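Write out the 3D structure for:
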Amino acid sequence: MRKIIAFICALTMFGVIYLPSTADAASVNPKTLFVKKFPRERLTVSKSVDLNGDNKKEHLLITDSGNFYLINSKGVIVLIDTNYYSDEDPIFHILNISAKEKHVAVTLDYSPSNTELFVYKYQDGTLKKKLSVTGDVRIEISKTGEIKQLWKSYYPEGGWEIAVANYKWNSKKEKYVGSGQLPN
């Protein structure tokens, strides 16, 4: 038995036996991992961030084809959503909800002044969509995760005024709650 254990130890020392560990997923370059799995996809934007306070980074990727992917801390690639096209490159925003919780917001800008916003919460190794709004004037995001949607409220006789809707994360309800002039 001792000879078998010594033999296995020797093989492991010389790299003949490879035993994967959870640290390996974190040490692999996410872009390399992604290109290996999807060689025809080209990355437009990417961001690496620890979303759940476990000291392991998750990786956010959007491709030229408009696909939004997450590579979680275990190295699993997850398709989150599709059709992420805009006049400019999409922008990732990280919302600090609490010390242990961050949300991912993605903004898509369209000329002349429209902004589409999607907000996701990291749950169970993937991202779950929690808010989707469009600001046809603009969207403002604070670092604490408060979102201000400025949109055009049209008069029946013509013309419009700027209306403001505010959204804030409610951890008890597990959703963003709106206040102010919410669009219909």
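The first strand starts at residue 43 and ends at 49.
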